[in-house]
Amino acid sequence: MEYSSLHRQLATMKKSFFDQGFLDEQFFQIEELQDDVSPNFVEEVVTLFFKDSLRLMGNIDHALEKFPQDFDRLDSLIHQLKGSASSIGAAKMKNECTVFRDFCDKENQEGCIRSFQKVKKEHACLRQKLENYFQLLRQVGPVAKATRSGN
Amino acid sequence: MLDSEGAASAPEFPVGLRVLLVDDDPTCLKILDRMLRKCLYHVTTCSQAMAALNILRAKKECFDLVLSDVYMPDMDGFKLLEHIGLEMDLPVIMMSADDHKDVVMKGVTHGACDYIIKPVRMESLKNIWQHVVRKKKNESKELDNSGSLDDNDRQRGVVDEGDNASSVCAGNWKSVKRKKVEGKDDDDDDEAVEEHEDPSHAKKSRVVWSVDLHQKFVNAVHHLGVDKAVPKKILELMSVAGLTRENVASHLQKYRLYLRRVSMPQYQGRLDSFASCQDSSYGPVGLIDSFNVHGLAVSTQIPLQNRTSIHPGPRSNTNVGIGASTVGQLGLIASGAPPNMVFPSVQQMNKQMSNTRGSSSNIQSSQLGQTPSVVQPYGSMSLQFGEEMPNFLTSSQTSNFSLPGGTMSEQMNKSLTMQQTHNLPQFSFSQPRSNISILHSSGQLLNNNASNSSRFSSALMQQTSSNESSNHILGRLGITTNITSSPANYMKSSFSSFPQDLYVDAQSSFMNELSGNSYPSASCIGVSPQTTSFQLLGSNHDLKGKIKMFQSSLMSHHNTVATVSNRDNNSSVTVKEEIISLSNDIDVEKTTSFAQHKNANIDDDSIRLHYGVGPDMSYQDVLLDDIQNELMTVVGNQQQERTGNTDSMFDYSV
């Protein structure tokens, strides 16, 4: 019983991610890749993303500081981050990257700095949410598997 | 190999399709890898384009398809695509989050079989096998005139292609490559003829342009000259058995297209080399230190030695290189080089700059970011420039700066302000200014009247060598050198673009207007290199504001300078006249420049510039006084040597 309530909790949580626009359908694609062969694929990928994106964001921070007028460089960096975010379905983060990119196109340094703050914020926010999600999932997971196989 | 897998359980194609996946993003790589495996493909992953190329070169036969990202750090995806097309003739699918039409078009023109937009979905990957089939089919169609194109053949073709891939035969690969790249219809006939002529090629063997073979080809082509190379001669030079003229012909065609295509990315490469050229030109930057000093010294009689000693190291920043050359020009001018000389070089500089700028600001940035001390040269540069390139300040061309003023100027200003205030105690602001005006005048004179100016400058040189103005100048240099590194970076970038604009403007101004026009700007720049130049870099508005300030101060200075120089030197009489005319021109210029520049948000920017000098007017006053003092000193020395009427000198005073 508690499992199903956990399940429900998980489902609600996940649904909220989508409803609030944190994740998009690409996340479903990732989930579909998870199976017996790769049972923790989703969490692995998400963890990998958040780790690598920290590196990318560090590069952007550095570029904003040292080469704030180098919009080509900034554009290239944000493109990387955006591609990465979109690959796991991090919708809000991806959108903020697009805003950043627009500012780059307009060579609006202020805009770039501001929107990058937003990018970082979305990054942190999503990270927190997904961490909670996976924590919950871990509680449910093995049981769920057992339940499934038991069925 | 498909065979072995087939033998195990006869999996249906495309199971076991051997894919090479290339993507620098680890997240994407992991996801795509998983997706491809889910499609039951055999996947090899690679996070670097060069590594992928090496793998392919070593084991081309082991792959059916390449899936590559477009934007990768070590190599452009399109370049990789070219290489694969030239050397391996494998179907390549490009991927990118970038869905701009021109990028997709680029993929097509570079020979990609397909272009997938990221984020990639499973569905997109499920069908990538079709490209392999299509390619084989087209190949077999070409190679197998009489062969049927049933599935067995196709599959066999896949296998056989791989098996025979290493054989160097005539023509077969051409059809495949042709299909892959833009159609080269003229190859069809060749191949068809070849087919008939070489019945042994019914087996779909083809010429595989291995790295060695391709290298021989390239060597031969370059030996003959890319434009003059003909297949027959290339073939002779290559002297490879089994290679036909047709093979070479189609490969040459492909190669020529490749060269054309990579001439764009080579622009980047050129930039890189250009950047490195800049580096080498930065050697001259080091010269700037001495050069600028020389320039300054020449024009202002400030001992070069002092200058150099003061700022030995920092000058040799990369960015300075650009400025250095500019300064060098100025130095030349100062030393009496004909003004025309300056312009050509300036033009070259401009060209260089524009190249740099046009191509990518990255290079500049990278150059710029190298040393904080860039600011230093800049300061001196600005001195030089200011003097020589007055008009750029006023000219609207300054807006051509690739580097937006905006924040950079702010940052620069802030740091400058910090630095300046710090440095101020060390050097009186006025001191540098006075030097500038001197320089300006000399510069102006030089520009306007080569002979006269050179005489004048030399006169100045002789006179000022013992002046305290040298201290000023040095001090001024010192100020510039003390600029912090963070603005330095900015400055560097702005610097690199700065000189360009300077030159552009200066040139045009020189050419089109009397030097007087440039004079005010020059002095503006020179006077407050930190503020003005940075301002200039940062924003045209700032510059304009500064120009205004300086112009007014310059006016008075001009007169003074003119007077002074007049007195001392017979040759400087002409100079004096020039200066006077310059002064007039400055007025004109001032008006013009004000008219030209709509905005003069000096207030905003000038605040940042506060070196602790105080409001603009006092700034100018100080400047004026100092300049006058300097001039007097200079003149005084000359006076000792010659006789002149001092009366007229002060008549000009503002």
Automatic annotation (TrEMBL), chain B:
- Coiled-coil boundaries: none
Q: Name one GO biological process term.
A: cytokinin-activated signaling pathway
Q: Which domain of life is it from?
A: Eukaryota
Tell me where in this chain the PTM 4-aspartylphosphate is found. Answer: D69
Write out the entry's keywords from A to Z.
Answer: Activator, DNA-binding, Nucleus, Phosphoprotein, Transcription, Transcription regulation, Two-component regulatory system
**Which is an annotated GO molecular function term of this record?**
DNA binding
UniProt keyword Glycoprotein, yes or no: no
Its subcellular locations are: Nucleus
Q: Which residues are in the HTH myb-type domain? A: 201-260
Which spans does this entry mark as compositional bias, Acidic residues?
184-197
Q: Segment Disordered: which positions?
A: 136-166, 178-201
Q: Name a GO CC annotation attached to this entry.
A: nucleus
Record SMART domains: REC
Q: Where in the numbering of this chain does the Response regulatory domain appear?
A: 18-133
Q: Which InterPro entries match?
A: ARR-like, CheY-like_superfamily, Homeodomain-like_sf, Myb_dom, Myb_dom_plants, Response_reg_B-typ_pln, SANT/Myb, Sig_transdc_resp-reg_receiver
Q: Which NCBIfam families match?
A: myb_SHAQKYF (TIGR01557)
Family membership, please give it. Belongs to the ARR family. Type-B subfamily.
**Biological function:** Transcriptional activator that binds specific DNA sequence.
What protein name does the entry list? Two-component response regulator
**Can you name the source organism?**
Zingiber officinale (Ginger)
Q: What is the lineage of its organism?
A: Eukaryota, Viridiplantae, Streptophyta, Embryophyta, Tracheophyta
